[in-house]
Structures are given as C-alpha cells and as structure tokens.
Amino acid sequence: MGNPSRQLVTRAKLRRTVLLAMLSAVSGDAGAAPFSIQSLHALFPEFVASGDAVPVIVRGPSAAALRNVAIKLKGVDVSEHFGPGDPNSLVGTVPGVGRGDNLIEVYPSARAARPQASLSR
Fold first, then answer.
1. Domain residue extents for the chain
2. Are residues 96 and 104 in contact, defined by beta-carbon separation less than 8 angstroms?
3. Closest C-alpha to 79, from 60, 99, 98, 101
4. Per-residue pLDDT of the chain (121 residues; tens, 9 = 90+)
5. Which residues are registered as beta bridge partners of 38?
6. DSSP of 9-23, one letter per residue?
7. What does the buried/exposed string (b/e) look like for 2-33 if buried means 16 or more CB atoms within 10 Å of the residue's CB?
8. pLDDT at residue 67, rounded to an integer
9. How much is the pLDDT for 89?
C-alpha cells in the first residue's frame, strides 16, 4: 500500500477538481447567458415609472464582471446610472425611456460588439 497521508492529499485534490468542474457547470459556463436584465416593474413591466425612466436590475456572473459592463439604451451608454445591488447585481433607473421601442442592452465591456442580455420596452 502507498503512503496514507499521500493518499489523503490525492483524494483531496480529486475532490477539489470535481467540485470546481461542478461549479463551472452550474455557474453558467456550460452555455447559459452570463448576464441578465429585468425591469423592476413586476406587475406591469410595460409602464414607465416616472415620466421617462424605468428601474432595472442587471445580474452577472460576479461582482468583478459587473464592474466592466456597459449598459446601453438605444445605443447610448447609461451605465453611470447603475450602482451595486445584491451580490452580483447592479440596480439603476434608466433615463430617456420614451414611447415606442426602447432597447436596453448589457455588454460585457464597453468594447464588446455583442450584448449578453437585453430588455425591450
């Protein structure tokens, strides 16, 4: 038989590797969208809160990832209107929402070409 303490270390490494693989699958690395966006108007999401603004929550895979996001309304960056919410989320009130189509998009960075989540008003 091998060294018992060495076997314990090997088992611990194996458990850690399996746990990390499971966490990666659950955290969204297996094809799920890493970001989401939702209106905070639960009953009537099509209505605007105060004239031309709507409260929104953006969720992401981590606080670090959310520090880099760009949130845009009709192509204009409105990220400055968001601040930390619950863990792994940003909450803000998007100004400039008007009648007709209002597309709010979440990009993983200011330079990203494609949004990772969107909300149409």
1. 1-31, 36-120
2. no
3. 60
4. 566 655 555 555 545 554 444 444 344 344 456 999 998 875 454 554 456 788 999 999 999 999 999 999 999 999 999 999 988 999 999 988 887 788 999 999 999 999 999 998 6
5. 57
6. HHHHHHHHHHHHHHH
7. eeeeeeeeeeeeeeeeeeeeeeeeeeeeeeee
8. 94
9. 96
What is the C-alpha to C-alpha distance for residues 23 and 28, in angstroms, rounded to an integer? 9
Compute and round to an integer the Cα radius of gyration of the chain: 20
On whether the CB atoms of residues 28 and 103 are closer than 8 A, the answer is no
Strands (E) across 1-121 are located at 36-39, 53-59, 70-73, 76-77, 82-84, 89-95, 103-107, 117-120
Whether 69 and 35 have beta carbons less than 8 Å apart is answered as yes
Exposed / middle / buried, residue 112 (Cβ in 10 Å: 0-12, 13-18, 19+): middle
CATH architecture group of domain 36-120: Sandwich (2.60)
Answer for the pair 91, 56: CB distance below 8 angstroms, yes or no. Answer: yes
